[in-house]
């Protein structure tokens, strides 16, 4: 994939720009590391533009230096920055939309139209990519965490646990965890951007037939290699955690035995016997059982001062380590669960609004409850009609405005049917639909009125679609008929 | 403003009467499928081809035979199978030992009405050969183009069940059919009438089409097609058709909408529908009536809609409810 080929300059650019920001944030929020991590995460859409800028040029053979990137910072970082940090911050398909904002620099309707065309078919893949990368970030974060814990002296591991789960103030834990956050984003985010950019290029290839199919085949080949690397990374991360637990257990079982052999040069059997003898002596056989509640960490502190009781301390720290992982896993599970609930709610709202028109229920497509103000492009409110429609139509006829005269009669008839008789006619109803609907309301509309409406519609269709105009006699009959069936006293 | 020059009202009226007679004749033997018969006649008048989908035994062959009989036309049937070759459809050149020359042996496509039964059972190559003939109205054998005698109409059938081992037609090829007609079981009353007519004084179970009278000849059908092609279509009506087609491209639930050929099909079919309805001009109603049959095979539903069990018909019905009728 693209990242595999250009990972070095991309990571360097990323480091040069984001590391100072990360350090500044952590400096100002030194006492609130969670806030610092959150702020850095929130700014990711801005940082995403670094790999995007680089990849968009590198794909066409131009290698961009960090200096050139910084020189053009306004065109790289400013377009749609506010939007990307507010309305669209939680959009999973962010990296797929980014080329439209950053590279095409489209605005308003043109941008919306472009996004709509691009989103068709590929949008679900882009969202899937976002979700997958989020999962990867979680895995890499905990993988790094586990890896560091595995190599960390137990004293510090215990302190870390105390800080995370007992609330004790240990100055270095917050920045360390933020460093994990930073490394996680540094590893995953460029891949996320490159993935979104690949989808974008792919969609444009489909739409515009870019003659770069061969190049993309090569990219796809590399992508498969990347997938293996990612799998390896996950495996390593998981293995790190598992091996940490197992090493703890092994260490507990083996370390005392090894110590006894190397320090005294006696066998296990001899050591056991000697210990037993000492323990059986009077000084050690006076056993007393004391029960009570005490704070575990205080006990640990006291034990720290006494080297002779190191085995007891080892046991407590091992438990602390297990607690730490248990609690971390529980916390991450809880976070994931809440994210799932939020995603379900968002998906529910999204699909409801998306499919509402398809199911034909409510919304702008019209439930048919509200009376349309215009039908066939004509005003059909009572206020839009003259007092005497028949006379006004005849006047238009005499003025040579034949289509307008027929239009007025037809519009008047529809208005009266809707507002006087309460017949519901949708904006999509054709003339034939109107006749059908009117004929279904025999109890409201008399047979002669229905016949007249059919005749009027027919004349209207002749004029409108066949350009066949009625003669004066027909027009006079229509005007008189209108007064009779739809006039004020009818 | 109109799209075409007008033909005389008498010609149109005569054409309309003839078409109604053809419909009445077919209705003598094809029972309970009035809408299907109407749509097949519309496709014939519009010089298009139809894809008929329905379970076996609903009278598809009978319909084609009956239609061919009404205008003394030729009728051929090809049962598509996985081993059917393109030359089995179009024909081939054969060496004649007597004359020591190649003779062209014409395939079953050289007819007026061709029933391509279960078209999705043949491989893509054979399907493509037929679809090319449908498009070009000519066959090339040994590099020599041979025109088909008009009228030429293909009625291809698909079976919605038993899809295993079939070769579904790709969207680009489906686009060549003017209409996709869904044929369903007749209602009880009509089925009773059908059973009675088949079993009354009849040996075997095939329906006799001898009762059908020939109304016109093949040349007359070509004239009808010419009259249909010249029917008045107001610009606003054609804009309405285009609006429907364009709406399919933006409609939620439709992944791929209809192309420009969809709009062309609606206007062609709308003209024929107007003749069948006795008009000498096309109204938005004619377009709306034929829109589902004209577009159902040109759209691809999104997977979500398919999972929900929605069909192109229901989606298109909702879509039609949202497209404003022509503005005047």
Task: Note down, in words, how this protein is organized.
The complex is a heterodimer of chains A (490) and B (328). Chain A is 75% helix and 1% strand. Chain A has 490 residues and is mostly helical. In chain A, a hairpin with a 2-residue loop joins strand 1 (374-375) and strand 2. Chain A has helices at residues 2-28, 33-42, 44-47, 49-58, 66-71, 73-77, 81-85, 94-103, 108-151, 154-165, 173-208, 213-264, 268-280, 282-285, 296-305, 310-359, 389-398, 402-419, 431-439, 447-465, 472-486; strands at residues 374-375, 378-379. The radius of gyration of chain B is 20 Å and the shape is globular. In chain B, the strands form 4 sheets. In chain B, strands 2-5-8-1-9 form a 5-stranded parallel β-sheet. A two-stranded antiparallel ribbon of chain B has the order 3-4. Chain B has helices at residues 9-29, 34-45, 60-70, 86-90, 124-136, 171-174, 188-199, 218-229, 235-250, 260-276, 284-295, 303-307, 312-320; strands at 50-53, 75-79, 91-96, 101-106, 113-117, 138-141, 144-147, 153-158, 179-182, 254-256, 300-301. Chain B has 13 helices and 11 strands. Chain A binds chain B through residues 116, 120-121, 351, 354-355, 357-360, 365-366, 375-378, 407, 426-433, 461-462, 464-468, and chain B through 2, 232, 234, 236-237, 250-253, 255, 279-285, 288, 304-305, 310, 315, 318, 320-328.
The averaged pLDDT of chain B comes out at 82
Give me the count of strands of chain B. 11
Number of strands of chain A: 2
Order of strands side by side in the largest beta sheet of chain B?
Answer: 2-5-8-1-9
Largest interface: A-B, 32 and 32 residues
- Considering DSSP H and I runs of 4 or more, what fraction of the residues of chain B is helical? 40-55%
Task: Tell me the series of helices and strands of chain B, N- to C-terminal.
Answer: HHEHEHEEEHEEEHEHHHEHHEHH
């Amino acid at each position: 994939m693209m990242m595999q080929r250009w990972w070095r300059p991309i990571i360097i650019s990323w480091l040069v720009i984001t590391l100072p920001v990360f350090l500044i944030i952590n400096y100002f929020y030194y006492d609130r590391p969670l806030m610092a991590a959150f702020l850095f995460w929130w700014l990711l859409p801005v940082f995403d533009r670094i790999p995007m800028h680089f990849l968009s040029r590198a794909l066409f053979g131009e290698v961009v230096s960090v200096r050139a990137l910084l020189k053009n910072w306004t065109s790289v970082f400013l377009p749609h920055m506010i939007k990307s940090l507010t309305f669209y911050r939680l959009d999973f398909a962010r990296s797929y939309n980014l080329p439209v904002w950053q590279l095409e620099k489209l605005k308003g309707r043109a941008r919306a139209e472009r996004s709509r065309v691009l989103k068709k078919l590929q949008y679900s893949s882009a969202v899937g990519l976002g979700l997958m990368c989020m999962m990867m970030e979680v895995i890499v974060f905990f993988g790094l965490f586990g890896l560091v814990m595995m190599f960390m002296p137990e004293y510090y591991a215990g302190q870390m646990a105390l800080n995370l789960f007992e609330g004790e103030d240990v100055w270095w834990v917050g920045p360390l965890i933020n460093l994990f956050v930073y490394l996680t984003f540094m590893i995953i985010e460029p891949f996320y951007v490159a993935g979104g950019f690949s989808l974008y290029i792919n969609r444009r290839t489909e739409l515009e037939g870019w003659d770069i199919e061969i190049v993309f085949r090569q990219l796809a080949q590399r992508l498969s290699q990347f997938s293996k690397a990612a799998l390896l990374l996950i495996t390593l991360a998981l293995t790190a955690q598992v091996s940490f637990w197992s090493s703890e257990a092994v260490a507990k079982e083996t370390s005392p035995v090894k110590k006894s052999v190397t320090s005294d040069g006696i066998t296990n059997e001899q050591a056991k016997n000697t210990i037993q003898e000492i323990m059986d002596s009077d000084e050690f056989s006076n056993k007393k059982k004391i029960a009570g509640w005490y704070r575990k960490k205080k006990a640990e502190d006291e034990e720290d001062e006494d080297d002779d009781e190191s085995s007891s301390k080892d046991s407590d720290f091992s438990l602390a380590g297990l607690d730490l992982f248990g609690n971390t896993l529980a916390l991450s599970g809880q976070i994931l669960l809440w994210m799932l609930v939020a995603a379900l709610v968002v998906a529910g709202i999204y699909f409801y609004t998306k499919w509402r028109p398809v199911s034909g229920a409510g919304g702008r497509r019209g439930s048919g409850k509200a009376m349309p103000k215009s039908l066939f492009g004509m005003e059909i409110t009572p206020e839009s009609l003259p007092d005497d429609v028949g006379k006004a139509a005849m006047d238009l006829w005499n003025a040579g405005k034949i289509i307008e005269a027929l239009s007025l009669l037809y519009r008047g008839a529809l208005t009266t049917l809707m507002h006087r008789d309460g017949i519901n006619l949708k904006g999509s109803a054709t003339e034939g639909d109107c006749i059908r609907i009117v004929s279904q309301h025999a109890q409201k509309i008399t047979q002669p009125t229905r016949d007249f409406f059919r005749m009027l519609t027919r004349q209207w269709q002749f004029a409108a679609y066949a350009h066949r105009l009625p003669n004066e006699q027909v027009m006079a009959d229509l005007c008189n008929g209108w007064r009779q069936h739809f006039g004020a006293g009818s | 403003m109109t799209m075409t020059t007008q033909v005389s009202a008498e010609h149109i009226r005569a054409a309309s009467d003839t078409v109604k007679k053809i419909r009445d004749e077919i209705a003598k033997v094809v029972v309970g499928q009035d809408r299907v018969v109407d749509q097949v006649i519309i496709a014939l008048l519009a010089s298009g081809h139809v894809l008929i989908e329905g379970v076996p035994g609903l009278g598809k062959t009978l319909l084609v035979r009956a239609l061919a009989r009404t205008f003394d036309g030729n009728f051929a049937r090809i049962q598509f199978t996985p081993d059917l070759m393109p030359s089995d459809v179009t024909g081939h050149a054969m060496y004649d030992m007597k004359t020591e020359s190649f003779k062209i042996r014409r395939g079953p496509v050289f007819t007026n009405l061709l029933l391509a039964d279960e078209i999705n059972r043949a491989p893509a190559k054979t399907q493509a050969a037929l679809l090319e003939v449908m498009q070009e109205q000519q066959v090339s054998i040994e590099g020599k183009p041979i025109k088909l005698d008009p009228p030429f109409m293909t009625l291809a059938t698909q079976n919605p069940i038993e899809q295993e081992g079939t070769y579904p037609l790709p969207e680009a090829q489906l686009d060549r059919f003017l209409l996709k007609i869904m044929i369903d079981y007749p209602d009880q009353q009509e089925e009773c009438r059908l059973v009675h007519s088949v079993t009354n004084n009849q040996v075997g179970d095939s329906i006799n089409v001898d009762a059908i009278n020939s109304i016109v000849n093949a040349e007359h059908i070509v004239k009808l097609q010419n009259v249909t092609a010249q029917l008045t279509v107001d610009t606003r009506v054609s804009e309405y058709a285009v609006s429907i087609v364009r709406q399919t491209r933006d409609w939620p639930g439709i992944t791929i909408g209809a192309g420009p050929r969809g709009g062309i099909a609606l206007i062609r079919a709308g003209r024929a529908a107007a003749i069948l309805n006795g008009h000498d001009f096309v109204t938005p109603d004619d377009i709306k009536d034929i829109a589902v049959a004209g577009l159902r095979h040109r759209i691809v539903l999104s997977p979500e809609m398919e999972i929900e069990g929605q069909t192109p018909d229901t989606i298109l019905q909702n879509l039609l409810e949202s497209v404003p009728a022509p503005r005047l």
